[in-house]
Amino acid sequence: MTGEISLVLLILGASIVLFASERIRVDVVSMMVLLALLLTGLLTTEEAFSGFSNPAVITVWAIYIVSASLTYTGIADVIGRYLERIAGTGEARLIFVTMASVGIMSAFMNNIGATAVLLPVTIGLGRKAGIPASKLLIPLAFGSLLGGITTLIGTPPNLLASDALQEVGLDPFRLFDFTAMGLIIFGTSLVYMTFIGRRLLPHYEETLHKDPQELNREYKLKDYLAELHVWPESPLIGKTIIESRLGEQYDLTVMGVIRDGRMRLGILPNAHIRAGDMLLVKGATEKMLSAPRELGVTLSPEGELDEHDWQNEEVSVAELVVSQKAPFIGKTLKEANFRARYGLSVLAIWREETSIAGRLDAVSLRLGDTLMVQGRKERIEEAGKDFSFLLLTEHEEETKRISKAPLNLIIFVSMITMVGLGWLHISVAAVLGAILSVVTGCLTMDEAYKSIEWKSVYLIAGMLPMGIAMEKTGTALFLSEQIISVVGSLGPRGIMIGLFVLTTVLTAFMSNAAAAVLVAPIAIQSSVTLGIDPHAFVMGTAIAASNSFVTPIGHQACVLVYGPGGYRFFDFAKVGLPLTFIIWILMVIFLPIFFPF
């Protein structure tokens, strides 16, 4: 092992630790990797920044725009409505139809986008059929991942694996080269989930509620909500809610005011406090207990609050899931200026398996967090239309550009046709499709910018130089030799399994795109060492990177359904681990047939 190889492995190991810890954003970690490779002299300036001009990266952001156009013109919603018509009420049929529908969408649009479109639809169908969300949302997420492996553009790892082949002078994958293997895996997985996997899914009672009292109990709000009765001698009298500084000094959020028997709910910054008012507040228990002594208020007896309904004809409560496009991911509610920006008060946050209902200002928001919010109904509707959220209750649909749908469909089909026939490189066709979608008014340029998951783009662009460094320094050869020394006696199929296991493990701790970038050079080098065609190894690596079924953090689609489904961490492994083994077996059998050794 040379000094350069040791240095690359050190940087690689540090990046894996940072990815797994989630203490630093993944796109920032990838930029740190890029700079580390550049400053240590392992790569030249041109090599280090080559990821930003890489055709695979360009294709990824262009496909995001094309995918968004399908949503803005209502084409994705049509698929959702079709799903409602054919889904039925049986659990097995509903799972099958949900997975098939999201899989078809994911073959041509990004996985997380397809999952986001069908998430509220699937929850609604489950409610009508009396089936809990926990039985449907893991199949939804898995279906999006499985559908993505059926085409070159279905998921970034496929594009990155193809690019790795081209970088070493080999033929890249074409648009439908993944289709045969992908359909075998997709079809088998549908059968597994419909007849076996669904029996391994947890049966949790409904985690999403329409009744505010149910929300109160589910989110464990009782200890954080109280009523403060304002006495005539209170220094608060005559002040507005803002001037009272209850938020700044006591971390108390005023949710409403009861005056003369009439309840006023929502954000009331300019409402003047009067003697006799009953302030409905949320905050930490110790803060509420200390407030009466200083503010001339009386804390109402425990239990009295349950008698009040926290919504009326104007104000409501709802649950919003933080989507992958939310600009405030990683920020606290205070840093995001959430209350002023959206006109909503966050009562509690459901994250993974628990509710967070105490002091929320210091809690950094994450993808998949479910926010219990209170506010005016029109502000909740507006939030439901914002790309930052998924509203998990029935709401008025945003007006789509339906008149542009036929034109959008022509652009999309033309893009696929030109790539399929080999007339244009996938990156050129994707950019052309994106530009035509904007020029023809299927979406605006601002919407196009918002649709791009820049975090993913920077992640990929920053990690691609690691692949170059692994090839340049001989690290890929070194790691391939280690794999061959361990499983080489089992032949090419044994080495394939070793690559699958390595990729699956890495994907559990980092982005699937990053895992594909790291393992693809090792797969190529291993096949070269064995003197066989590398396409089978590389395709298997890409598929293994995409199928992140074992943990809920392996892919954003799984993170997105984690909270709404009320899942526990190991629920994914119970269903996903057997599916992972099935996919490995299928690839070991069929990949050598499609790409003979």
List the helices and strands and how they pair.
Blueprint: H1 3-21, H2 26-39, H3 45-48, H4 55-72, H5 75-87, H6 91-106, H7 111-129, H8 137-148, H9 156-167, H10 179-200, H11 212-218, E1 225-230, H12 246-250, E2 253-259, E3 262-265, E4 278-282, H13 285-295, E5 297-299, E6 315-322, H14 338-342, E7 344-351, E8 354-356, E9 370-376, H15 377-385, E10 389-391, H16 405-420, H17 426-439, H18 445-451, H19 454-473, H20 475-487, H21 491-507, H22 512-530, H23 535-546, H24 556-562, H25 571-594
Antiparallel strand pairs: 1-4, 1-5, 2-3, 2-4, 6-9, 6-10, 7-8, 7-9
Helix pairs in contact: 1-2, 1-19, 2-19, 4-9, 4-17, 4-18, 5-6, 5-7, 6-7, 6-8, 6-10, 7-8, 7-24, 8-10, 8-24, 9-22, 9-23, 10-25, 16-17, 19-22, 20-22, 21-22, 21-23, 22-23, 23-25
Report the major sheet.
5 strands, antiparallel
Number of strands: 10
**How much helicity do the residues have?**
55-70%
> Regions with pLDDT < 50 over 5+ consecutive residues?
none
In angstroms, what separates the terminal alpha carbons?
A: 29 Å
What is the overall silhouette? globular
Q: Please, what is the average pLDDT?
A: 85
Write a brief structural summary.
The chain is built from 25 helices and ten strands.
Keywords:
597 residues; alpha+beta; five-stranded antiparallel β-sheet; 10 strands
Protein described:
Helix 1 (3-21) runs antiparallel to helix 2, helix 2 (26-39) runs parallel beside helix 19 and helix 6 (91-106) runs antiparallel to helix 10 (179-200). The longest helix has 24 residues, at 571-594. Strand 7 and strand 8 (354-356) form a beta hairpin. This protein has helices at residues 3-21, 26-39, 45-48, 55-72, 75-87, 91-106, 111-129, 137-148, 156-167, 179-200, 212-218, 246-250, 285-295, 338-342, 377-385, 405-420, 426-439, 445-451, 454-473, 475-487, 491-507, 512-530, 535-546, 556-562, 571-594; strands at residues 225-230, 253-259, 262-265, 278-282, 297-299, 315-322, 344-351, 354-356, 370-376, 389-391. It is built from 25 helices and ten strands. A five-stranded antiparallel β-sheet has the order 3-2-4-1-5, with helices on one face. The two termini are 29 Å apart. It is an alpha+beta fold and 597 residues long. The mean pLDDT is 85. The radius of gyration is 26 Å and the shape is globular. Helices cover 56% and strands 9% of the residues.
